[in-house]
Amino acid sequence: MIAGFFQGTEMPDADWWQALWPDPAGVLTKSGLAAGTTAVDLCAGNGWFTLPMARVARRVIAVDIDGALLDIARRRACEAQLSNCEFIIADAYDLAKVVVEPVDYVFLANAFHGVPDKVRLSKSVADSLAPDGQFAVVNWHQRPREETTVLGQPRGPKTELRMRPDEVKAAVEQSGLKFARLVEIPPYHYSAVFQKVRALAG
Q: Whole-angstrom Cα distance, residue 39 to residue 35?
């Protein structure tokens, strides 16, 4: 395993990943991605969400610690003739260091459960966001792993790693981001969306 790789977040086989997420664009829309924004696909892996994100956002920055997976994402973006993507090999904790200009949207799917220091990560995301920017966390529901089957097999992180929405809320709000809404992502996920509150003048 790569140093810094979050627990239980390895990139799955493409067949069941596609079976689980047949409509990644729909997940992004439910999770608040808006047209014309600058967006980050954090822990982007092979770009399953990066490409549909690039078809909506003005600019997309895909960040992952695994350069080999990012190479796959870069190649897929090139084949799709998407020229508004940037690919950065970096630890997710260092997001605020590698993304210099504030962004409008940060998306994190299937990784938050494995982050050792969730508050630290959330603070880095908060520092990266422009005022009113959003942070969307897509997580597995806290159901026994044997109940979350894809292509006939139990999938997802270990049962003990899974988080309730209120646990995600408690961790992320320590960064100063405010909980905005919870969206169901069938069959096994939810999206918790947070917003960076604009500072009051004066």
A: 10
**CA 14 centroid distance within chain:** 18
**Residue 195: strand pairing partners:** 134, 178
Q: Up-side HSE of residue 53: CA atoms within 13 Å toward CB?
A: 31
Count of Cβ atoms closer than 10 Å to residue 13 Cβ: 11
Q: Please report the domains of the chain, with CATH numbers, ordered by start residue.
A: 24-180 (3.40.50.150)
Q: Give tens-digit pLDDT for 76-86.
A: 999 999 999 99
Q: Which amino acid is at 158?
A: K
Residues constituting the chain = 202
Q: Going by C-beta distance under 8 Å and a sequence separation of 6 or more, which residues neighbour residue 81? A: none
Overall pTM > 0.85: yes
Q: What is the DSSP letter of 37?
A: -
The CA distances from residue 195 to 39, 54, 198, in Å, are: 14, 21, 9
Both tokens of 37, joined, read 């924004």
